[in-house]
Each structure stands twice: as C-alpha cells, then as structure tokens.
C-alpha cells in the first residue's frame, strides 16, 4: 500500500509541480468523490421509495420520483463537467512542461490521465468506505480490513508490472523489442489477476452482508444500499487494478 501511495505522490509532484496546478487537480478529485458519495445517498433515497417504512400515497410517490430523476440527471451533468474541466487542466499544465519529444509528451498525457483516474478512484473508495460506517459499523470495519488486504495485493501487482515495463523499455532501447501482443498480454493479465484477487474480498463482504441481514442487524432498506455500495467498491477495486497497470506502463515510458 505504501508503494502505491509513494508512486502516486511522486508522479503528482512531477506532472503538477505548482500549488495552483495541484489545487486544481485536488478540486477535480473532490468533485468526483462528491459525485460518488451522492450516488450512494441517491441509492438510499431510491430504497426509501421502493421500501418505505410506512405506506405512501400515489401523489407522494410521483413527487418523490420526479425529485429523484431530477437529482440523478443533475449528477450526470456534473460528471460530464468534471471530465471537461480535467482535460482543460491537463492542456494548460502539460503544455507548459513540454519536452520537445512528441512521443514522451504523449506518454506524459497518458500518465496524467491515469494518475488522476487513480487518485479519483482512491478518493471515492475512501469516502464510500467511511459512509459504510454510517449504515453499519460492523460492515464498515469488515470492509476496512478487507480493503487493507486488497491494497497489499495491488501494491504487489504494481511492483511486478513496473519491473516488466522497465524490461520492455530496455529491450526496446537495445533494438530487440518484444511483440505488442506480449506487452498487452502482460499488462492485461496482471490487471485481471489483481481484479480477481480483490473480488475474493468483495465476495467475503457479500457473505457478511447476507449474515447481518439474516441476523436482523440491518433493515431491508439498509441492506439494499449496502449492496449497491458493495458493487461500487468492487468496481473501484477492479478499476484500480487495471488502472495501476496502465499507469505503470505510461510512467515508465514517459521518463
């Protein structure tokens, strides 16, 4: 886990060295995290629509349904605006640090894209994990323990991928490049292994969720929200695994 944090920090300082640029990147990440937390709250809102604690009239359901759809649409628009803002930041920052080598500059763009995606995924995972404590402290603790284990696995996969990419770069430098098929296979398989291993943790958490519900520790509405959150956590782990492998490739070849 320390290795991942160290690589992300060093890359951030390299690509966005000024306080203004770092601040803008932090703003993008904060916006993405806010969207993710809002999606969990929207799931909670939806669970109250379909699993109310007391009967509602048709009129009330229609009004709440319209509110839900308006808020959901607003989140989609904000998400689009976030991506547009992120690209503008890259254009301003990376244009000022061009090295004159079009290939290297292209890899720096790729590194910046992967970096911000990874930072966003980490931020989303952190705040979603905190939110889980609000719905069920026991489930939140289990998620924390599993999360530490998953990050140890991903850190191990990242280290191996960096070694592979440096080996590919060295072969390319000595005019004995490996095939594109081998490059892609090495990166994709490594990402899938990390995703597969992390999914084991998600399956364990799903078992914990079923146990808590069967034991009467959480209500049906909370169980529904936790299931949606758990699916999001699984997607975040999968995105981190594949993203870290792409990040390693871009980082090595941008240097």
Describe what is shown at a glance.
This protein has 255 residues and is mainly α. It is built from seven helices and no strands. It has a single domain, classed as ABC transporter type 1, transmembrane domain (ABC transporter transmembrane region fold), CATH 1.20.1560.10.
What does this structure look like?
By secondary structure, the protein is mainly α. The chain has a single domain (about 1-255), classed as ABC transporter transmembrane region fold (Up-down Bundle). The chain has seven helices and no strands. It has helices at about 1-15, 20-50, 60-95, 100-135, 135-175, 180-215, 220-255. Helix 2 (about 20-50) packs antiparallel against helix 3 and helix 5 packs antiparallel against helix 6 (about 180-215). About 25% of the residues are buried. The model has no long low-confidence stretch (mean pLDDT about 80).
């Amino acid at each position: 886990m320390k290795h991942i944090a160290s690589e992300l920090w060093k890359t951030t300082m390299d690509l966005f060295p000024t306080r203004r640029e770092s601040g803008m990147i932090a703003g993008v990440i904060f916006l993405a995290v806010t969207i993710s937390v809002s999606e969990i709250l929207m799931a909670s809102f939806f669970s109250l629509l379909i699993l109310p604690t007391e009967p509602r009239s048709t009129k009330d359901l229609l009004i709440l349904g319209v509110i839900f759809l308006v808020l959901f649409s607003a989140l989609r628009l904000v998400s689009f605006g976030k991506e547009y803002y992120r690209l503008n930041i890259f254009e301003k920052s990376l244009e000022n640090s061009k090295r004159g080598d079009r290939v290297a500059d292209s890899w720096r763009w790729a590194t910046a894209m992967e970096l911000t995606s990874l930072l966003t995924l980490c931020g989303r995972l952190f705040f979603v994990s905190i939110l889980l404590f609000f719905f069920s402290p026991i489930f939140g603790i289990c998620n924390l323990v599993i999360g530490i284990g998953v990050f140890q696995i991903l850190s191990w996969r990242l280290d191996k991928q960096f070694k592979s990419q440096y080996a590919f770069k060295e072969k390319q430098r000595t005019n004995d490049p490996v095939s594109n098929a081998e490059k892609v296979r090495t990166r994709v398989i490594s990402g899938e292994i990390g995703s597969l291993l992390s999914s084991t943790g998600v399956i364990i958490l799903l078992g914990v969720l079923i146990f808590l519900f069967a034991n009467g520790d959480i209500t049906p509405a909370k169980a529904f929200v936790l299931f949606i959150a758990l699916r999001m956590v699984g997607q975040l782990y999968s995105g981190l695994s594949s993203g870290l492998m792409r990040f390693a490739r871009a980082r090595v070849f941008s240097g």
